[in-house]
Design goal:
By secondary structure, the protein is an alpha/beta fold. 42% of the residues lie in helices and 16% in strands. The chain contains 26 helices and 25 strands. Strands 6-5-14-16 form a four-stranded antiparallel beta sheet. Strand 10 and strand 11 form a beta hairpin. The protein starts with 8 loop residues before the first helix and ends with a helix.
Length: 785
């Protein structure tokens, strides 16, 4: 067989993808008598499309799964997608408003959810086809969704069980509220950023002492309308005599107590007195609980002032109220100094809206009892983290964990299985929809309106995808997963929560190892951004995109003019079609144990040249393997390379076989330790420098022999066999990294008849001890030197 003169991934890659899928080569059978190896794909959002982070994670997962599958493991690569509660609901709501001028409330809950499901059916599998395009060898017939029937059953069982065990509870507590997403969000979904602001001093008159005031400082004067105390440090000589007395809250008709608190108050900061607003600050809330203070909410879910704030301010936004309060404080003689001050401000990680801490009835998971076994599992290495530096990050957060708010004021998601009795007010939590109140027997039940945080269902993902809560064959075979590959930015969102849920419900860690991928940046180390115009879209790398196409897309996305200029700078010639293999090899070769990875198109171009080098070397080999019998050669080398007799092996022959065996060992060791760059580097150096630049050049005289005498014919046979065998085994070594081109070339090569139908299920080369020839390596090094 011959190869075309040049390699075109647009021709090769779709053909082999179709071949693999039609031959069902990615399916894992739980009943197979082989050692299991399992990886679960971190479920991408149904709203999403493939970005460079997905491409990196998927590539590394696929390298591991293809490697282990070729080693004979029962390799399961589990696919699935996430319903992405907030993101999906917002997307459909915006489309509804844009196209019909309606809100979800105009449709009603059931009709709106029908719209979301319809959207999901139309667009939700877009990223699946893109993952296939990059060569992900996922077990597609097992594909799951975080709101399919099996996941819904798992979520309900987990919620009810945790509730029965006292690990889920409902409470009126302070939560993070996003006025744009219009829901509570967890602490992890709040980005704390330092922004320029001010520190205002306010004088609170002391009741019964007309000439005396207590001065507090605040960055949010509008929240003073909800103050329920002023706190001072115990024993502070400036204020010690005031503890137990009261102050008059300016601009209101209320009097509030003065309390002593050594946790909230820093006596070295400011006046040593702190206003306490339990309804709008987490630290103040805890102080309020310690002292039994009244909890008032003067800001509503729309971010506007509300009762019990004085009527004058009600309906104002917080910004409007701040200006009005400051004006009135100054007019009343209550306002002191104003200073510039850097303010740590919480913003919603999704909408960038300022987060309002609000009092609300919400559902919480009691996290500490769940965290303790997950801490112990990492410390004892039942689950190992790679790179190991992330262990400290994980443990610090877990050891300081707070209860997890799991209720969301959305319609798209797993509805909380709790029913409120309209007769007695009791709550019934049940595995099946109840017909009557467990407390009073009345049938007037209303299901809780809230849904669960998306991460609650994701926390069950390694179990639920395998059939939990049922005791399935899949669960027995493939749980725990062998490794999780994910970004370090969701170590708390997802990894920690899977550890907690897996250990609690299964008594086992959900995965034996976690590999945290770096965050991909541009060549300058800058975060990729559509605004900057430096985004590398993996699909553009694979299929190609002109500069005009890149600029047009930026304009469609509303990018500013600077983005278009940057596109011209970063991608002056657009993106030529490098193919999935070149992108995959680039990502693997650049994956080192660091927090970031710099990816530039010239690196991808360099690895595209590597694939071309492999292609051209294979074309040369195929043109010189006429008459070669691979089965006969396999018999000759079955017991090692003969050093004499009728099958003479030259120094270069023995050297390249020896180097192949050594590289097989290096790749095995590197992948076992998740050192992807080392594995890719070893293969690159071997194929380009040693096989192509040295061995093939040295083999040419023997390959060109006319076969007229016995020695020349025998030498040609040995050289042909060495070239064909080393090339074939090199393609096996490369297959997990560059599956498409390796499969294409492999099928053209003469190879033993007993080999399987695809590289996907062909044995991965092991370090062959009988091929190691230290003398040949030493002598050949002298030749090269």
């Amino acid at each position: 067989s011959e190869l075309p003169k040049s390699y075109d991934p647009r021709d090769v890659e779709p053909r082999w993808l179709e071949f693999w899928l039609s031959h069902d080569l990615f399916h894992a059978d739980a009943r197979a008598p082989k050692a299991p190896f399992s990886i679960t794909l971190p479920p991408p959002n149904v709203t999403g499309s493939l970005h460079i982070g997905h491409a990196l994670g998927t590539t590394l997962q696929d390298i591991l799964i293809r490697w282990r599958r070729m080693q004979g493991f029962n390799a399961l690569y589990m696919p699935g997608t996430d319903h992405a509660g907030i993101a999906t609901q917002m997307l459909v709501e915006r489309a509804l408003q844009r196209d019909e001028g309606k809100t979800r409330h105009d449709l009603g809950r059931d009709a709106f959810l029908a719209r979301v499901w319809a959207w999901k059916e139309t667009y939700g599998d877009r990223i699946i086809s893109q993952l296939k395009r990059i060569g992900a060898s996922l077990d597609w017939e097992r594909a799951r969704f975080t709101m399919d029937e099996g996941s819904s059953e798992a979520v309900r069982e987990a919620f009810v069980s945790l509730y029965e065990q006292g690990l889920i509870y409902r409470a009126h507590r302070l939560i993070n509220w996003c006025t744009d997403c219009f829901t509570a969000v967890s602490d992890l979904e709040v980005d704390t950023v330092e922004e320029p602001g001010h520190l205002w001093e306010i004088h609170y008159p002391v009741v019964g002492e007309p000439e005396r005031t207590l001065t507090v400082a605040t960055t949010r004067p509008e929240t003073m309308l909800g103050d329920t105390a002023v706190a001072v440090f115990p024993g502070d000589p400036r204020h010690g005599d005031l503890v137990g007395k009261r102050v008059r809250l300016p601009l209101t008709d209320r009097e509030i107590p003065i309390v002593a608190d050594d946790i909230l108050v820093d006596p070295e900061f400011g006046s040593g007195a702190v206003k306490v607003t339990p309804g709008h600050d987490e630290n103040d809330f805890e102080c309020g609980q310690r002292h039994g203070l009244e909890m008032l909410s003067v800001i509503d879910v729309h971010g506007k002032m509300c009762d019990p704030a004085p009527e004058k301010y009600r309906g104002m936004t917080t910004a409007e109220a701040r200006a009005a309060v400051l004006t009135d404080l100054e007019a009343g003689g209550f306002l002191g100094d104003t200073k510039d001050h850097v303010v740590p401000r919480g913003r919603c990680g999704r909408s960038n809206t300022i987060i309002e801490p609000l009092l609300s009835d919400q559902w919480f998971v009691r996290a500490r009892p769940l965290a303790e076994p997950a801490i112990a599992a990492v410390k004892s290495k039942k689950t190992e983290l790679f790179p190991p530096t992330f262990e400290k990050t994980y443990l610090h957060w877990m050891e300081n964990i707070r209860d997890w708010c799991i209720s969301r004021q959305l319609w798209w998601g797993h509805r909380i299985p709790a029913w409120h009795c309209q007769a007695c007010g009791e709550i019934t939590v049940a595995r099946t929809d109840p017909s009557a109140c467990e407390s009073c027997g009345e049938a007037r039940l209303v299901q809780d309106e809230d849904v669960l945080d998306t991460w609650f269902s994701s926390a069950l993902w390694p179990m639920s995808t395998l059939g939990w809560p049922e005791k399935t064959t899949d669960l027995k075979a493939f749980y725990p997963n062998s490794v999780l590959v994910t970004g370090h930015d969701i170590i708390f969102f997802w990894v920690a929560r899977m550890m907690m849920m897996g250990l609690h419900f299964m008594g086992k860690v959900p995965f034996r190892a976690v590999y945290f991928t770096p965050i991909v940046t541009d060549e300058n180390g800058d975060k990729m951004s559509k605004v900057k115009g430096n985004v590398i879209d993996p699909l553009d790398v694979i299929a190609g995109a002109s500069r005009e196409k890149l600029i047009a897309r930026a304009e469609e996305n509303g990018a500013p003019p600077v983005a278009k200029k940057n596109i011209e700078k970063y991608f002056p010639d657009g993106m030529p079609p490098a193919g999935a293999d070149a992108l995959r090899f680039s990502l693997a070769a650049l994956t080192t144990p660091s927090r970031t990875m710099r990816l530039a198109m010239d690196r991808v171009e360099g690895y595209r040249h590597f694939i071309n080098k492999l292609w051209n070397a294979s074309r040369f080999a195929l043109m010189n393997l006429d008459g070669f019998d691979p089965d006969r050669f396999a018999e000759v080398i079955a017991g090692g390379l003969p050093r004499g007799g009728s099958h003479p092996f030259s120094l270069p022959d023995r050297w390249i076989f020896s180097r192949l065996a050594q590289v097989a060992g290096e790749v095995h060791d590197a992948l076992s330790g998740y050192r992807f760059a080392d594995a890719a580097g070893a293969l690159y150096h071997f194929v380009w420098d040693e096989l192509c630049d040295w061995y093939i050049e040295l083999a040419k005289p023997a390959l060109r022999a006319d076969g007229g005498d016995f020695d020349a014919e025998a030498r040609r046979f040995s050289t042909q066999g060495t070239l064909a065998t080393v090339l074939e085994l090199s393609l096996r070594l490369l297959h997990p990294f560059i599956p498409f081109v390796s499969e294409e070339i492999w099928h053209k090569l003469p190879r033993p008849k007993a080999l399987p139908e695809s590289l996907v299920v062909t044995l991965y080369p092991q370090p062959e001890a009988t091929w190691i020839d230290a003398e040949a390596v030493q002598k050949m090094q002298l030749v090269m030197d």
